[in-house]
Amino acid sequence: MTSPSEIPKLSAPSRVTTVDDLRGPAGRLEALLNTGRDDAPFAALVCHPHPAGGGTMHNKVVYHAMKALNAAGVPVLRFNFRGVGLSEGEHDHGRGEKDDVRAALDWLTARFARPILFAGFSFGSVVGMDACCGDARVAGLIGLGLPVRAVGRDYSFEFLSRCTRPKLFVSGNRDEFSPVDSLMAAWQYAAEPKRSVLIAGADHFFQGTPDSPGAKLDEMQAAIRDWLAETFGL
């Protein structure tokens, strides 16, 4: 039997365009849009990891998450948080970055006027899910490499208890910022419906480990595609 991740998607011309009119409270936000099908039922937003670790919208995990969403014909917006790349403003330790996410949601709503799927990696998953939970425009959320503790930063996930939209969590079982026991405890905060996927032998960046070499980004993408197919029929 063919799994949802193996079902070929409808092909659609997709191109990358520069977004010049995305502005948040701190100023212009550098952004890219991967176009999708004109009749796509959703638009999507993907957020990047912590800038202190070099996180930008060009991060490999962010890029592969975008590709998984775009393969379903969905237009996908990526942007740099304030103070990153050409985005104006200064890093605000997750506070102002939530407003950047809301500005991106506003831009997608004005451009496409359709429900939005959110995906974020690491810091981007925490900030983005917090901003998106309870927002009626957001139909589903994906948290990739949800961090529990990273470089002295502790993260809290009580906000997930009020998030009743479908949620997918994908992490590696060798994630150095989220030991499995701590990660499971964080996932338990989340309200239903939710799905949690642990990828064997994957670290925080979905790369392999000495006992399980080779990147695991394909497995991360497969988890996203399966969830999109089964939850939203994409």
Taken in chain order, the helices and strands follow as EEEEEHEHEHEEEEHEH
- What fold name goes in the CATH topology slot? Rossmann fold
CATH superfamily: Alpha/Beta hydrolase fold, catalytic domain
Q: How do the strands line up in the largest sheet?
A: 1-4-6-5-7-8-11-12
Sequence stretches where pLDDT stays below 50 over 5 or more residues? 1-11
**Mean pLDDT reading:** 93
* Beta-strand percentage range: 15-25%
Gist?
The protein is built from five helices and twelve strands. It is an alpha/beta fold and 234 residues long. The protein has one domain: Rossmann fold, CATH 3.40.50.1820.
Task: Write out key terms for the chains shown.
234 residues, alpha/beta, Rossmann fold, eight-stranded mixed sheet, globular
How are the elements arranged and paired?
Blueprint: E1 16-19, E2 23-24, E3 27-28, E4 31-34, E5 43-47, H1 60-70, E6 76-79, H2 95-112, E7 116-121, H3 123-132, E8 138-144, E9 149-150, E10 153-154, E11 167-172, H4 180-188, E12 194-199, H5 217-232
Helix pairs in contact: 1-5, 2-3
